[in-house]
Design goal:
The chain is of the alpha/beta class and 346 residues long. The chain has a single domain (16-101, 120-138, 159-199, 225-345), classed as 3-Layer(aba) Sandwich (Deoxyhypusine Synthase). It contains 15 helices and eleven strands. It has a six-stranded parallel beta sheet with strand order 7-2-1-9-10-11, with helices on both faces. A three-stranded antiparallel beta sheet has the order 3-5-4. A two-stranded parallel sheet has the order 6-8. Strand 10 (273-280), helix 13 and strand 11 (303-312) form a beta-alpha-beta unit. Helix 7 packs across helix 10. The longest helix is centred in the N-terminal third of the chain and has 18 residues, at 34-51. The termini are far apart.
């Protein structure tokens, strides 16, 4: 049987959009058909978002994106004012980004492992598989324990996930962790809020369960999802014009779309999301939320249909092209830094 080190030998390399000017390629795709033309239009809409001085850009992340090699893409977007708020699954932020910020890595799985025939062997070696990517379970437990340590040091009270992720960024900044291109650390530095509406559905959940179990019914840290919703709704109310760049679907997609309705329920007259892009492989025919179209969202009063585009493509292909197009068109250079995290804490 191969050793653990033999399985975990080749690391995932995160793509660097700043090094690849894809503008000519994407503009050529405008004259093609099918998903190529859709992707080109989505890239143009994203560039339009970045040039709209009144628009706050909300990035939604679902699926295993950081483990796939997209971490630096999102870190660069935060660093260069190409996104003003993030709504994500906990897995991307905790199990993958924070995990790597602690000095750990994701590894390329050999071709033969995709079929799942060696998953039992991987389990014996404490190796977890994400399709064609591997992660060390023992290192992941250290990530869980670090979350517990952060919770143990906080004042016992309810926190929004946005507040707790901010504390994770503070921990990385203060401990000098090897956090190059960490989404969590860059967001902390740039005051970009990160929301994880289903925060406990990841390593954060294990750490918080351990924290709460040790305190029984005593004073403890809790995560308030309603506070999350209220805080993101405040961004809509205060910012007014918004654009969505949604990678995948699920909870982050619905959470971000719903803030228009939430603002109206609170008595505010706000516009629908002015811009919306979704990159997904989900099929609308199965009735799933992840595949529901942006035009469908318009019927709920959430998304305007003037500048919306569905891109049916796997994220690791589409995201570098759309993000690199926006970066190299350089519309972000004149964007103000909105620093929503600081404004929410004020």
């Amino acid at each position: 049987m191969p050793s653990k080190s033999e399985y975990l030998s080749e690391t995932i390399q995160h793509v660097d959009i700043t090094r690849h000017d894809v503008v000519p390629l994407v503009e050529a795709m405008k004259h093609m058909a099918y998903s190529a033309r859709d992707l080109a239009r989505a890239a143009e809409i994203y560039d339009r978002m970045l040039r709209d001085a009144n628009c706050s850009v909300i990035l939604c992340l679902a699926g295993s994106l950081v483990s796939a090699g997209l971490k630096k893409v999102f870190a660069d977007m935060i660093r260069n004012r190409m996104v003003d708020a993030v709504v994500s699954t906990g897995a991307n932020i905790v199990d993958q980004d924070f995990f790597e910020a602690l000095g750990f890595r994701h590894y390329i799985a050999d071709e033969r492992l995709r079929a799942g025939l060696e998953d039992g062997v991987l389990r014996e070696l404490h190796i977890d598989r994400i399709y064609d990517t591997l992660i060390d379970e023992d290192e992941l437990r250290i990530c869980d324990e670090t979350i517990r340590k952060i919770a143990d040091q906080l004042e016992p009270r309810p926190y929004s996930s946005r507040e707790f992720v901010g504390e994770m960024g503070k921990y990385l900044a203060e401990t000098g962790a090897r956090a190059d291109n960490s989404i969590v650390l860059e967001a902390y530095r740039e005051h970009v809020p990160i929301f994880c509406p289903a925060f406990s559905d990841c390593s954060a959940g294990f750490g918080l369960v351990a924290h709460q179990a040790a305190r029984a019914k005593g004073a403890r840290v809790t995560i308030d999802s309603a506070q999350d919703f209220h805080e993101l709704t405040r961004i809509k109310v205060l910012g007014n014009e918004t654009g969505l760049l949604m990678i995948g679907g699920g909870v982050p997609k619905n959470f971000a779309q719903d803030i228009v309705v939430a603002a109206e329920i609170l008595g505010h007259d706000v516009p629908m999301h002015k811009y919306a892009i979704q990159v997904t492989v989900a099929d609308v025919r199965d009735g799933a939320l992840s595949g529901s179209t942006l035009k469908e969202a318009s019927s709920w009063g959430k998304v305007d249909t003037t500048f919306e585009q569905m891109v049916y493509c796997e994220a690791s292909i589409a995201v570098p092209l759309i993000a690199a197009y926006g970066y190299h068109k350089r519309g972000w250079e004149r964007r103000p830094a909105r620093k929503w995290a600081s404004r929410l804490d004020a």
